[in-house]
Design a protein that fits this description.
Blueprint: H1 36-56, E1 70-75, H2 85-93, E2 107-110, E3 113-117, E4 129-133, E5 145-146, E6 164-169, E7 174-179, E8 197-202, E9 210-214, E10 227-233, E11 239-244, E12 251-256, E13 261-265, H3 268-271, E14 279-282, E15 285-288, E16 293-298, E17 302-303, E18 309-310, E19 312-317, E20 322-327, H4 328-331, H5 334-337, E21 349-353, E22 361-363, E23 368-373, E24 378-383, H6 388-391, E25 392-397, E26 405-410, E27 415-420, H7 423-427, E28 438-444, H8 469-486
Antiparallel strand pairs: 1-28, 2-3, 3-4, 4-5, 6-7, 7-8, 8-9, 10-11, 11-12, 12-13, 14-15, 16-19, 17-18, 19-20, 20-21, 22-23, 23-24, 24-25, 26-27, 27-28
Family: Belongs to the major royal jelly protein family.
InterPro entries: 6-blade_b-propeller_TolB-like (IPR011042), MRJP/yellow-related (IPR017996)
Pfam family, one: MRJP
Length: 487
């Protein structure tokens, strides 16, 4: 049966319960004496103060009108855009395509397309990175188009993509791809033929040429590493912070793009699974997953006490109830990567606990974190400007539609997306192609990705997006007004 037939369509009432948004108070107006010049000066002073405050502090979150999460796509199994029906049959007959072995993990948006990752944990996954339209309404189960091409997803060709768990697309249109190299990680004989790599594609050119950077084996063990998720920091040469949930050597890998330098930082206390969180119970199914550091998110820029510009990196093991944080400046310290495990421990902050375990998470440009609570069939959010213990909010809960929220992304129209993939069934080899196994949910929030957060001005520096233009203009107007007063 084709994946897009009537039994695979989304019912029109497939909406998820959304909790009301928090109401924010508008700023109080300031009144001044009714003197024209005094009024002008006060207004100009207000402009300078507001502009300075905007550049000195992290962006404050604004919660616009929210919509309920809706199912926009769902599949019983994943199918592809084949060259011909005969080609599909050949792949099926040779077990190069086993429909129940293809799972959607990661998601990202660019140019009206959604890019989906299909990690080769099992055999029979013909492509590990693919794309679908973000706003197509013709079918609720579109076939996936391999990206960049079929040839660049060829199994066993180390110049092609082998095992993509997640990707990120930065503000410059560069796609950052985590290619683990090793395939068949859930089989008895994983194949480590190809090295773990970071692959870069400049989407702006339209050529989709891949730049592959193999990661050094002395830092990233090709037999044990599992490059899971990443965030990209487009400052000072472009950095990626990558979670490696290796069963034997978990840590956060730092990659600097401008000189291809890489190092790894470890802290067992915050990056390892804990026994009390390894059991996952979803809709009557129990699975044991002692998975280490997994989800990662990047907060807005802020001005540190020494006047430097910094950001906060948030992370959590899959098998944990805690959320941890560390400053990006600490991760960027190469010397800490040369020290023994725990060198970053004094800089790690335990923000508190969640009511359940979390897989992927993503932060918006104002500092709101979106994440799943797997055991609760819940999507939650946290405004990082308030205490984590008190500031968590449930925004959607549904045991039928939210069965293992995996990864999140934002588009350029104010929508947030989440992949739901019933990973617990996949891991236990209980996937039935007679049931809906994979969904993409969408909600309009009016927000955008952390990638497009505000750039603060370093001391004596200039913002990347004209961040300094407003205070400079306001200061000029203020001087002009003072000059008129003196005259």
């Amino acid at each position: 049966m084709e994946a897009g037939d009537k039994r695979n369509r989304v019912p029109s009432h497939a909406e998820l319960r959304l909790q009301p948004s928090v109401a924010l108070h508008a700023p109080t107006a300031i009144h001044a004496p009714n003197t024209a010049l005094t009024t002008m000066l006060l207004v100009l002073f207000a402009i300078v103060a507001a502009a300075a405050a905007q550049n000195e502090k992290s962006p404050k979150s604004i919660t616009p009108h929210r919509e309920q999460f809706r199912v926009i796509y769902e599949w019983r199994f994943i199918d592809f855009e084949w060259g011909s029906p005969e080609e599909r049959e050949t792949y099926l007959n040779n077990s190069n395509y086993i429909p129940q072995n293809v799972i959607i993990s990661g998601i990202n948006f660019h140019g009206d397309n959604l890019f989906l990752t299909l990690p080769r944990m099992l055999n029979g996954v013909p492509a590990t990175l693919a794309m679908i339209p973000a706003f197509q309404n013709e079918t609720t189960a579109p076939k996936l188009k391999p990206f960049p091409s079929w040839a660049q997803n060829k199994v066993g060709d180390c110049e092609s993509l082998q095992f993509v768990q997640n990707i990120e697309i930065d503000r410059n249109g560069i796609m950052w791809i985590l290619d683990n190299g090793r395939i068949g990680t859930l089989t008895q004989t994983p194949d480590p033929k190809c090295p773990p790599s970071i692959v870069l594609i400049d989407l702006k050119t339209g050529k989709n040429e891949m730049e592959r950077i193999p990661l050094p084996a002395e830092i990233v063990n090709p037999n044990t590493t599992y490059l899971n998720d990443l965030v990209v920091d487009n400052r000072d040469g472009d950095y990626a912070y990558i979670t490696d949930n290796s069963a034997v050597d978990p840590g956060i890998i730092v990659f600097r793009r401008d000189d291809k330098k890489i190092w790894k930082l470890r802290d067992k206390r915050s990056m390892s699974s804990v026994p009390e969180a390894t059991l996952f119970r979803i809709n009557g199914t129990t699975v044991n997953l002692p998975v280490n550091v997994d989800g990662i998110a990047l907060g807005p820029q802020f001005r540190a006490e020494d006047d430097s510009i910094d950001r906060t990196v948030y992370y959590c093991p899959l098998a944990s109830f805690h959320l941890f944080a560390i400053n990006a400046s600490v991760l960027r310290n190469e010397s800490l990567g040369e020290r023994s495990e725990g060198a970053i421990r004094p800089y790690v902050v335990d923000l508190g606990t969640k009511s359940s375990q979390t897989d992927g998470m993503k932060m918006d440009s104002t500092g709101i974190l979106f994440y799943g609570l797997i055991g609760n069939s819940t999507i939650a959010e946290w405004n990082s400007t308030v205490d984590f213990r008190a500031g968590q909010r449930t925004i959607a809960r549904d045991p039928n539609y939210i069965q293992w929220a995996d990864r999140f992304t934002f588009d350029d129209r104010g929508n947030v997306y989440v992949v739901v993939n019933r990973l617990y069934n996949f891991v236990k080899n209980q996937v039935s192609i007679e049931e809906v196994n994979y969904r993409i949910l969408r909600s309009h929030t009016g927000l955008k990705s952390y990638i497009y957060g505000e750039d603060l001005m370093p001391p004596g520096g200039h913002g990347q997006h004209g961040a300094g233009s407003i205070p400079k203009l306001a200061a000029s107007l203020l001087l002009l007004a003072v000059a008129h007063l003196l005259v």
